[in-house]
Specification:
alpha/beta, Rossmann fold, Nucleotidyltransferase, domain 5, binds adenosine-5'-diphosphate, binds magnesium ion
Length: 421
Amino acid sequence: MIGIVEYFEQITGFKAIKQQKELLLALTNDEIKKLIVTAGRGFSKSLCTSIAILWYSEKAIQKDKPIKLMIVSPQDTMFQYVEKYFGKSEALMKHRLKRGVYTEVPIEGYQLLRYPETDSKEVLVDVFTKPATNKVRGNRANILFLDETADINEAIIKSAMGCLTGKLNRLVLISTCHKSGYFTTRAMNPKKYDYTVLQFNAEKCPWLKQTVSRAKVELTKAEYAMEVLGRAPTKEERGTYPHKNIQKCIVDDVVSEGGMIEAGLDFAYSPCKTVLYLTERNGIRRKDIFHKSWSKKPIETIAPEIAEILEKHNAVIVKADAHPREYKGHVEKHTKTPIFYIEFNMTKEAMIGQFKRRLLQKQIEIQQKSVDTIKQLRYHRRNLRTGDDIHDALILSCYEPKIPFNVKPRPCIYINGKPIT
Ligand SMILES: Nc1ncnc2c1ncn2[C@@H]1O[C@H](COP(=O)(O)OP(=O)(O)O)[C@@H](O)[C@H]1O
Ligand SMILES: [Mg+2]
């Protein structure tokens, strides 16, 4: 049997790059019993695997040794490659079991006959696909290939593994690390789970040049790691808040329930802005009420306006960043709303943790029209230097310290519908 790399090049007509050679050799290395392949999208995981399947089939014919290969995939892209290239091999064409009127390779798999020149229907090679459902159960295979494994539910992966038999007994899991779960956990901890892991970076593929340069602009760092570099994002690359949790908290319009207004105030001059954020507190829940930013304005100039907003909304408390120190004491000159200064950098982790839970438990309503807030929440990650000023003011506004600030609702007397305090 010719080598897998040569076989790949003959069948596909592509010149294999170094990383593909490495992948192809691992895919056909019978000594590797538990293999994980993680690579960026488009690297050719599915293509190389399908060629490895054809190679195994042809080798079985040459050695006259039966083999059963099982493919489990949530999509059928992998088998599409098998179908596409099957006809390129004379041996495969000669041995294939023709079913009824169909001459092509049926999408659920193919069988190769041991004695194609006789009437014997003895099957030597059985390659079959199963969708990633409970149907995987009860099959028997010598090698199991799972494509897009990150999309396959853990229970199904485990049932599929139960199908392995014989001495060969190989398990090959293939995917991008685009989701946490069974696959990604093992791809990240190969030693612990006794897997051989191969990771490939799609930046190395000449055929993906355009895709990669587009991805550089369009994707977040975390997405780029998963989709291009072929690995799970690090903690730093991952966004602070899961997008789906943010999404759950966005509402078309916020309707006041008459709760107390609390403010967050984050000071900056440039390039960040000073941001005032007002939220309404109703028990443990919050509502996004109002926010405003000021850029390149000295505190003396904006303090009266900040105070006016606080008065207008009858804010009961302001939680302000204690830095920079010289910003302290200005707003107080214009309002009776108590201002508490917080050592933001020291409490930030706790505040973020609290806000994360708030999003997870849907304890905040964010207005759809607060576009800049939503954007900063989505892009937020640890150690961001700019672009988190609105986020900071918002989490200050929502912050509830273990020992509550000593504030009482301000007595409010209305004259002609206007509050007098
Ligand atoms: N050596 C190569 N040279 C040029 N193009 C290649 C080469 N190897 C793969 N390709 C292209 O890359 C594609 C890989 O797609 P696919 O196997 O579906 O990627 P993945 O499963 O990793 O997302 C193939 O369809 C083919 O067009
Ligand atoms: Mg694929």
